[in-house]
Design a protein that fits this description.
This protein is α/β, with parallel strands linked by helices. The protein contains five helices and seven strands; from the N terminus they run H-E-H-E-H-E-E-H-E-H-E-E. It has one domain: Vaccinia Virus protein VP39 (Rossmann fold), CATH 3.40.50. Strands 3-2-1-4-5-7-6 form a seven-stranded mixed β-sheet, with helices on both faces. Helix 1 crosses helix 2. 41% of the residues are buried.
């Protein structure tokens, strides 16, 4: 896997990429008290045949629940750090409907209109260019596909509900549903649909 992390700072501070050497803390059992993988994935309303991208998957905290939700579909795991993908692969074991790729959230190694749904969990705040990421998510989602964002104030890179909604509305995503409080939420948005003649609205 090639290095895609040029210019990115690693560490625990705001705006830094969470380092792979601390990955164990991301899958600690007590995290379920704050963010439940089962409840988060249930809020996505996935079809069993869906193709789902978990972007910034880290060591795979949400990944087993996602893989179980799409038994006839596929889960794509993308992370900036190869070490995170290795940890996720070890966590998932022999799960057959999962593919792995190292990549930057602003330059996704995935074809256009490839995915039915995307999960961004506590990683959007690490990005230096959130607009570029959402533009890429819109590219790889099929028209009308779903983007789910999970955030918690316990994360140093927390993205407020207001900031998230403004960001996604700029890219013509529409709100489908939101669960939780302002300081800890799971929100799902729908990507833009084509115009009446098959053209994306300008």
């Amino acid at each position: 896997m090639g290095d895609t992390s040029e210019g990115r700072a690693f560490g625990l501070g705001r705006g830094k990429v969470f380092p792979a050497e601390r990955a164990g803390s991301l899958v600690h059992p007590l995290r379920r008290l704050v963010q439940s993988p089962g409840r988060t994935v249930a809020a996505m309303g996935l079809s069993p045949r869906a193709t789902v991208l978990e972007l910034g998957c880290g060591p795979g905290y949400f990944s087993p629940a996602l893989a179980r939700a799409v038994p006839q579909g596929q889960l794509l795991l993308v992370d900036l750090q190869a070490e995170m993908l290795l940890a996720a692969r070890a966590r998932l074991g022999q799960t057959v409907n999962v593919a792995y790729a190292q990549g930057d959230a602003c330059r996704l190694p995935i074809g256009t209109d490839r995915c039915d749904a995307v999960l961004l969990a506590t990683m959007l705040g690490e990005l230096p260019d959130r607009d570029a990421c959402i533009e890429e998510v819109g590219r790889i989602l099929r028209p009308g596909g779903l983007l789910t964002v999970a955030e918690t104030r316990r994360d140093s890179d927390f993205v407020s509900w207001r900031s998230l909604r403004e960001l996604l509305e700029r890219h013509r995503f529409s709100l489908v549903d939101r669960h939780g409080a302002a300081w800890q939420y799971v929100a799902t948005f729908r990507s833009p649909l084509p115009g009446p003649r098959g053209d994306a609205p300008g």
